[in-house]
């Protein structure tokens, strides 16, 4: 059952500045409680740059990989 | 008469609370965007009206349904706001609360979903919250009806003392505070009729770049505001305001937070999501769930129940009606209208109630469980390829119930073009009204694989929708958007009462239609089939329906249709798709479904039957859907386009399948 045990890789991250994101996306993230400096827990990451499931303040949120990348400061 | 407005973040339980507090029921679902239009009800045991508004994260709208809420605050003049929050996510929910408190309209804050909070390491002290926020705070668990009575009493009480509570004033930093004061004075000078709190609130919203408020100020010519736009924006007031609010929220929560001695962590959501959102298994599980839904509706429960109902209606009920009418000496013409027209036609459609209700019960259970958001997640990849996102998938699934609600549910989509595309492809979703006709043909020609054939039509609808979306993506030059974001709510074990209510809510429209549109359509087609230009006819071949059907028949021969009755039935189907079935029953002069099935085997081959179903699946949306498309796009052009394009697609595809199929079969 390798397949099912390795995919849930919980790790904590802190968001960086949101400069790479457009203002609309930033506003949308703010509404979901994600701001620069927020603590995120990555719950699940889909392969091949698919969606990412995050946990912020007890709430799970799914978003697309490029936004996730921008959040954690990678390009 | 006093009015209470229900406001809060999406999926916090507003609609559930609304239903508990009022005598009227509204639609509930465990995903964002269930309430797309405001709903009104009367507070139990009082004269007070309660308005349920769409869920919003802030008063600054990003989507069309969010704008409904802000507009309502500007124009609806509620006496009291009931702000519903998810107690487990207060930090985020309070951002909206502050915006509401600043308005000066009295607010009662409901911390809903207390049961979810119990599972977390912290609780909140309600009196402390009330003290910090200057408003009444009540804890509720709407799902298990806890705290409702206290909230109800509190609402009535608050309405009585509404004048006393002052608006919340936050300590905004110097430049902002100064600008607020100066602008308030300027505005009060030019517009003394505006209440002071409301003026302050307008200014703060204006500074925070709320587009609805900016448009409002423009319309009302509030020049004290409109002339300062650039100054506000250059000094980054929006940011300052946001930061101040956030700091205030953190301080408030810090003061009110208490450790939870009886924390009971609940692993249900995690356990289910281990499988359901699995990268590889997510899609197969999604398909499996839908397969199960169709099996239940068509093979296991729906169809057998339908058959029983049909046997009863076309047997004893028809015989009794005939017997009674004859013994009363009813005119033959009238008796035929009543029995062969209305009873057979409307009754024929009503026999599909079990299948439709089972399907709706499944959709309601999925909605209440929290699965829909996961469906959006696992389908996001697919939707991304056609320029849409997973959120577009939800309106499409709702379209399976009824295309009208599907089109309305697109309001949660932020990008106008994505929304338009979703509206245009929604009618390809096979709504419940088309089910009766599928069931008929499937019973006649594919009795051994009923669920599979019906499922194939549903999938064909989806495929056509996706292909069209891709074409629109290219035509409208939709950018590949990266803005898919969706909350994954906690799972709930679906509750029977909520499922039943949801099923009835979705299904009652179908039953009601049987009494109105289908009834009217049946009478119309009966008249058409019994009248000619020169008066009543006994030979249906001379009737108006026949004349019309025969005129258009050549057009349908390429897709394997050989009888004018079918063509006439298709024409009436534009009124409402259910009428196709009723019309066929009337036109073929049959008693119920069993006889119709026998007649069909002489007129169709399995191939031509399937092609006809494909045509019915895709051709012109019904009148109500067209009207909704017009209302939602605000343009007659798109409505006409939708009707025209779907006819062309339906015709093209049905002819193609028939012609290619004929080569092999
Ligand atoms: N656990 C729990 N669930 C609740 C509670 N109140 C409502 N729910 C559930 O939360 C889900 C969302 O409820 P709705 O009433 O549709 O929420 P809403 O705020 O009206 O949603 P939108 O109209 O989309 O903004 C449903 O599945 C409810 O059964 C509660 O107190 N506790």
UniProtKB/TrEMBL annotation, chain A:
The keyword Amino-acid biosynthesis does not apply. This is Ferrous iron transporter FeoA-like domain-containing protein. Keywords: Iron. InterPro entries: Fe-transptr_FeoA-like, FeoA_core_dom, Transcriptional_repressor_C. SUPFAM superfamilies: C-terminal domain of transcriptional repressors. GO terms for molecular function: transition metal ion binding. It comes from the Bacteria.
Automatic annotation (TrEMBL), chain B:
It comes from the Bacteria. Keywords: Cell membrane, GTP-binding, Ion transport, Iron, Iron transport, Magnesium, Membrane, Metal-binding, Nucleotide-binding, Transmembrane, Transmembrane helix, Transport. It is found in: Cell membrane. Mg(2+) 2 binds at residue 19. The keyword Transcription does not apply. Probable transporter of a GTP-driven Fe(2+) uptake system. Belongs to the TRAFAC class TrmE-Era-EngA-EngB-Septin-like GTPase superfamily. FeoB GTPase (TC 9.A.8) family. This is Ferrous iron transport protein B. It comes from Levilactobacillus spicheri DSM 15429.
